[in-house]
């Protein structure tokens, strides 16, 4: 049995708006992150990935629900009580440009966690920072340079070095390669994979790009409008896709082999993603789902994990399996989509 490092239990995160409405950014998410794995989190822009990530690291207070790390409930901890756990959970953000202060030298930026936690001073800190620079493939002699003197990929390496400073157990990578050129993306992904092996790290890897997530993840959670639509081991998610939303995402992926491309079903979803201020009742996806039935507007369809207890790491709508192409009971205006 895999060891659970982080557990998210029925987490909701709401943001007030200027009016009376509330943004339901995370809308009842439960999942576990196992020690040593990479859990990919994928979904279209605005589906709540970053909000969930920030709840996981307790950078945001949850509206309700709980997050526990190594069995300790962290979502209610004060900043002070969170301090020792903050060392264990680090976040790497998307924008290597925006997340580095342009007026500070990289040695001082990477050394920030040591300064905040009162670890190592003077030359000892400099030595530790230079070791980190070497670990992530930066030249330690560039200690006194400013962020602008580094390329995009090198700046993301600075972000990785800073995240590693306190030797965390869990790193939440929030779109770490999205701002980079494709050739540089591969370098950063390989670096993260090497570091995972070397330092026994666990990752939550967030991306809107399913092909990147497929490459790095042991399991993948697909998010739609604040909820997890499907969660499965990577091979199963691609080999036995269950959720209609995941099928649509997969069908949009480019394929290398033109023969496969010809035979592959392209699923074009009708309509827009509903507003996060007013998500649909029942299944969040039912307004766009080609398999939706009338009851999907009232209740979430049964989950695979509930029916198949040999497969307790899977979560997905079962309609494609149980209903096939039969849309006879579908909500009428959905049939056309
Ligand atoms: N601080 C905030 N205040 C108000 N609304 C917010 C805030 N942060 C996020 N939201 C809203 O919550 C929803 C989820 O946003 P979030 O950034 O978590 O999604 P995401 O999947 O990470 O999107 P992206 O891929 O674009 O970063 C969106 O509707 C967004 O506008």
Automatic annotation (TrEMBL):
Entry-linked PROSITE patterns: ABC_TRANSPORTER_1, ABC_TRANSPORTER_2
In this chain the ABC transporter domain maps to 6-250
GO molecular function terms attached to this record: ATP binding; ATP hydrolysis activity
- Keywords of this entry: ATP-binding, Nucleotide-binding, Transport
InterPro entries linked to this entry: AAA+_ATPase, ABC_transp_ATP-bind, ABC_transporter-like_ATP-bd, ABC_transporter-like_CS, Oligopep_ABC_C, P-loop_NTPase
One Pfam entry for this protein is oligo_HPY
Example of a GO biological process term: peptide transport
Origin: domain of life: Bacteria
> What NCBIfam families has UniProt attached to this entry?
oligo_HPY
Q: Family per UniProt?
A: Belongs to the ABC transporter superfamily.
Its recorded name reads: ATP-binding cassette domain-containing protein
Q: Which organism is it from?
A: Kribbella albertanoniae
